Amino acid sequence: MSPKNKKKLERIRTKLDKLDNKLLALIKYRTSLVKEVLKLKEFKKEIVDQKRINFILNKIKRKSKKLKIDPRITNRIWKNMIWSYIDYERRNFKKK
């Protein structure tokens, strides 16, 4: 890689690092919302709502196409996020 391209790569990586920090802040906020939702659930079986999951994934697919983002990327990200939060809810569910 040329020195010029190495410099460009470093600048891009710095931007990616800053973006990652913003994403972490959003994930922290999303987690706080999931905690609120979890408090409302009375039974562990309420944690997985397949209808809601399908609705979210379809909505993300439509928005991704509209924004010209590869929907395979966003689908994978959202599926992982959804199932990670389902795991979180299962681990933190407390019977009332």
Explained architecture:
By secondary structure, the protein is mainly α. The protein has one domain: Chorismate Mutase Domain, subunit A. The protein is built from three helices and no strands. The termini are far apart. The mean pLDDT is 96.
Task: Report the C-alpha radius of gyration, rounded.
Answer: 18 Å
Fill in the CATH topology. Chorismate Mutase Domain, subunit A
Give the fraction of residues assigned to helices: over 70%
CATH architecture group name: Up-down Bundle
Q: How much beta, percentage-wise?
A: under 5%
Tally of separate helices: 3
Number of domains: 1
Mean pLDDT: 96
The low-confidence parts are none
Q: CA-to-CA gap between the ends?
A: 60 Å
Can you give me a brief rundown of this structure?
The chain is an all-alpha fold.
Q: Which short descriptors sum up this protein?
A:
96 residues, mainly alpha, Chorismate Mutase Domain, subunit A, 80% helix, elongated
SSE blueprint and pairings:
Layout: H1 3-40, H2 50-66, H3 71-92
Helix pairs in contact: 2-3
